[in-house]
Amino acid sequence: MRFTTGSGTREDWAKLKEEIRGALPELGIDKIGFASAEPFTELKHILARHREKGHESGFEEPDLDKRTDPALSLERPQSLISIAIAYPSKLSDPPKSEPGAYRGIISRSSWGEDYHRVLRRRMAMLEAFIAERVPDARMESMVDTGALVDRAVAERAGIGWSGKNCAIITPEWGSWVYLGELVTNIPFPPDKPITDQCGDCTICIDACPTGALVGPGQLNSSRCVSFVTQTKGFVSDEMMRKIGNRLYGCDTCQVVCPVNKGKNWTHQPDLQPDPDKVKPLLKPLLSMTNKQFREQYGEMAASWRGKKPIQRNAIIALGNFRDKSAVPLLAEMLLEDERPEIRGTAAWALGRIGGPEAIAALGEAKRKEAHPEVIERIAIVEEELSAQENGQA
After folding, report:
1. What's the Cα-to-Cα distance from 88 to each of 24, 54, 208, rounded to whole Å?
2. Which of 40, 310, 331, 387 has its CA 20 to 30 A from that of 146?
3. What is the 3-state secondary structure (H, E, C) of 235-303?
4. Nearest to 166 by CA among 46, 41, 263
């Protein structure tokens, strides 16, 4: 089958669509859906209200028109193609976290090779497959960081329904899927969207550690643990306690989803995790150089913000574990690290752990610290420790 966009009939495009479906295994794609390229008019209103409430993360494309109008990604588009690739949700032999050798956890979305790279390769293969049959086809593909809202495209294309946890949930793979989309001038017959199957279930909303899911399909990103672990800078006391030992991302709202129960996908070799990388020892992270960080985590999606957030989150985890063996390292970071947010977080962690050595380090830091927010954090921690000693807390 080989023709041009001008000569192809509706029957031709329907046949090509089925030919693409038949090639999914060789393309490394688990599911594909086709949709019209009409603007997402209602979504634009939803996103505007989301912005008005201050619920955006700041990582999104700022132009709402680009996020909702495919014509701004490709001139005169005819169709949208959405793809899904399933990823694993369980470690086959997870290393244990033990006193003195506590471990953090990296979100399942960052297990294996960076999914952006994996999906781009798959999308390139899909484009080549189509171009071989329709040489004059115009296509523009994007993965996560593209302008269009990938979940909206996936929902319209029948990949899955938009769950109350803001994830696309597929009947076959659950929500353990990465999404990519392609805008094209080929008029493929559209697929039908899947009916919402969440029903009255609110397990994900109830389980959210910080109440970031403020309603069905409504996320306040500023309170989402996954978002906070990816930010740079200081984190509030409340959020540090909620982060637990998470180094990057949060899977709670997906882990508790009944549709995901028992689902774990191991058929994509690129996405399989190294247990020691995704559940690493915390203390070694504190002294890791930029070069070591790139060598160990550079191939993972979690590396995109650099080592600073990961190190800060490791400090938070050590504080939440109350790991006394980490006090010397934390004291060194409090007194010597050049990054204020690292010093301030180390002060908080030492306050959580307590003990004479921690108190001594805080006292020394108080005498030499010049950054106002770090000074404030040290003062708060000392006050809390004093209250504990006096039996007031």
Report:
1. 19, 33, 21
2. 310
3. CCHHHHHHHCCEEECCCHHHHCCHHHCCCCCCCCHHHCCCHHHHCCECHHHHCCCHHHHHHHHCCCHHH
4. 46
Determine contact, residues 38/144, Cβ cutoff 8 Å: no
Q: Which distant-in-sequence residues (6+ apart) come within 8 Å of 114 by Cβ?
A: 299, 300, 301, 303, 304
The pLDDT tens digits of the residues spanning 22-62 come to: 999 999 999 999 999 999 988 888 888 888 888 777 777 88
pLDDT tens readout for residues 66-101 = 888 999 999 999 999 999 999 999 999 999 999 999
- List residues with catalytic annotation: 144
pLDDT score at 1? 66
| Alpha-carbon Rg for the chain in angstroms | 24
| Cα distances (Å, whole numbers) of residue 340 to 216, 308, 320, 376 | 38, 11, 20, 12
Residue positions counted in the chain = 393
Q: Residue 207: its pLDDT value, please?
A: 98
Question: What is the rounded CA–CA span in Å between residue 118 and residue 268?
Answer: 10
